[in-house]
Amino acid sequence: MYRIFKEYASLFAANGYHLYMIGGTSRDYLLSIEPSDFDFVTDATPEEEKAFLKDADYTFAKFGSVKVFNDGVEVDITTFREEGDYKDFRHPGYIRFVKDMSKDVVRRDFTVNALYIDIEGKVYDLVNGIEDLNKKVIRFIGDPYKRIEEDPLRIIRAERFAKRLGFQMEKETEKAIEEKRGLLEKLNPDKVKMELLKE
What we know:
alpha/beta; 19% strand
């Protein structure tokens, strides 16, 4: 299925942009696991993508998110971005598109989900994600308390990844999760339920 990535990465390169595997896609690729979803990230903005991704779904373009469909597979392509402080435990105060991977990485959740892989298979690891992958550790990027306060659903995500992959929680990550678990009660119960149902 990784032919899908190479197909789109080649298309982006032909138009002067870069495309990388990211998130669970790159993590699973490095673990030799068949991906459950396809998440790519690019330095092209949605407006720039419209020139060569004619059939994409641009419903959430203002957030930098574009969807394409390939042989029945849904692919999410997100533009490099930086985010303002979160106001409601779910949404950033602002989103600004950037060209710099080092600005994009700080908004991501876990080190093992922040490995950028290009069309040649080169891994860009700005947060020691490879080390945590090898040690089988789930660790928040940056301050774990802040990351949970930004989006408490990350508690459920951390626990899901640990269970699915057979990984252990890093000590500070585990401590923050236990201390901040009550924030889940502030969220829409349907959002929590949807996250719990994910595999």
